[in-house]
Write a structure and sequence with these properties.
Organism: Papaver nudicaule
Low-confidence stretches: none
Order of helices and strands: HEEEHHH
Bound molecules: zinc ion
Mean pLDDT: 81
Strand content: 5-15%
Strand order of the largest sheet: 1-2-3
Radius of gyration: 15 Å
Distance between the termini: 53 Å
Number of helices: 4
Structural class: mainly alpha
Protein name: BED-type domain-containing protein
Oligomer: single chain
């Protein structure tokens, strides 16, 4: 048990907090996007879906840059080592890069 708790304490803060903040100390699951100001409940994992524009659960961030998406996407891929998930992230990034190139 001691070892387990030790590992949790050593876990680095999620990279996504660089662009998110929790203003409501009473409810840590409420996260504000520093980029577009959107408030959402569901914690940092939902925030990442907001940035990565994974539709269905949360609205997409209009201010997220390709660079930010790439950083969060790589982090998500590292945490979920399944091949299909990596392919999914790759597909999103390819699509985003393509969309940004058109503008
Ligand atoms: Zn946003």
């Amino acid at each position: 048990m001691t070892k387990l708790f030790g590992n949790i304490a050593l876990q680095p803060r999620d990279i996504a907090w660089e662009w998110a903040e929790s203003r409501d100390t009473a409810n840590k699951h409420v996260v504000h996007c520093k980029l577009c100001g959107k408030k959402m409940s569901g914690g940092i994992h939902r925030f990442k879906k907001h940035i990565m524009q994974i539709k269905g659960q949360v609205t997409s961030c209009r201010e997220a840059t390709v660079e930010i998406m790439r950083k969060i996407g790589e982090d998500m891929a590292l945490k979920n080592q399944s091949k299909s998930h990596k392919n999914h992230i790759d597909a999103i990034l390819t699509e985003v890069c393509f969309l940004h190139m058109k503008f």
